[in-house]
Amino acid sequence: MTSAQVDQHRDGNEAVRAEGSEGEGYQRGLGARQIQMIAIGGAIGTGLFLGAGKGISKAGPSLILAYAIAGLVIFFIMRALGELLMYRPVSGSFSEYAREFIGPFAGFVTGWTYWLFWVVTGITEVTAAAAYMTYWWDIPQWVSALIFTVVLYGANLISVKLFGELEFWFSMVKVTAIIGMILICAGILTVGFSDAGDTASVSHLWSDGGFFPHGVGNTLMTLQMVMFAFLAVELVGVTAGESKDPKTVLPKAINTVPWRIAVFYVGALIMILSVVPWTNFSAGNSPFVVAFEKMGLPAGAGIVNFVVLTAALSSCNSGMYSTGRMLRDLALNSQGPKVFTKLTPSGTPLVGTTFSAALMLVGVWINYQWPGKAFDYVVSFATISGMWAWIVILLCQLRYRAKADRGELPRSEFRAPGAPWTSWFALAFIGMVIVMMGIDKDARVSLYCAPLWALVLGVAYLVLKRRNPEAAAFRKR
Q: In the 8-state DSSP scheme, what is residue 343?
């Protein structure tokens, strides 16, 4: 590509940026405050508040190291996404980039897989939220699940700004709870108040069987649980087309990933495991609830239940938001029914969100039929489908960086540091996690679902290609 062609491409790219969501029909309703909290909230969910208990019992204090290493990989993934977003910020970014840098089939697979990921996650989280409600009131789970689904659906149809406000306050609850726990633990360690004051010590991190009490192998086996906890951090990319100032806001949000993980995961676990020995934690119990009980603060159980309720509703709210946009992106590229392109007057994807919410109502039926096992029935597919989005982000960034370095495309203003080596490292790490999932009999079911879904998508794409060859055409930008 000549310098003149690069300049022409850059001018076209700037036009896309200037047009932004207006070119896609969306409205720029998400401000810096909301984007920052969406980024923070995406990294904090039930994987920390509930799932960390199983990880601690399996790996002991070394779970802290697992979160730190996985967090570094997540930062590499997010910086790769940031480089792509500054090159071309669009809603439905993952499938758009896959379509441009890998091919139309990759865009088709990525869009539908990420859509299914959020539908499954929405079912999972609304199921969990319904279960949390039984802590206070003896009401059927399916009733709570139905109410939550309908309320969040309505909020997402009103405007993207309301979605952003809900996410802001959901995330605020989670952030406040973790910071509060860290401050309480710091006070116990320094002043020595509460029932745990006499025994609290940072030496618990290595004195109770060592930092790797069950060996390095068991720590590696927790990586798939750790990565599950970070799923949805990439949601920032979906908001690109509706951010008021994506060129400024998105890089700031992405650059907060290291300290978010350092404080909310690594910092919180260091504090909790210093105050309460790791041997007190077990699978199925929230480490936050156990810590509050050991501190002599029984009200903590109710507090944590409220926090995990908001975490679950936050995830379901994100699912409502992203599924409609993914379906619309597919439809705009002739890879989904044209009816999904319809928007409300406020700029929200009406039909796509409605269709996705209707499928999430399957969760209501599951709660009605099997209230005790509902969570287990729908959770297995989430991890592998979510990691597919990360793999696509990294592959697209590698392709884009190579083209930009050759002068075929304009360079991004927010280049990923250390790339392409950091991107290759992240891909290798994700590959190792998938291998670990295959070894772990409890996580193996996730891998059984993937080939079946791939077969469904392969057949659907062949039918689509035959009926509409344009949808399978490789279109250069």
A: B
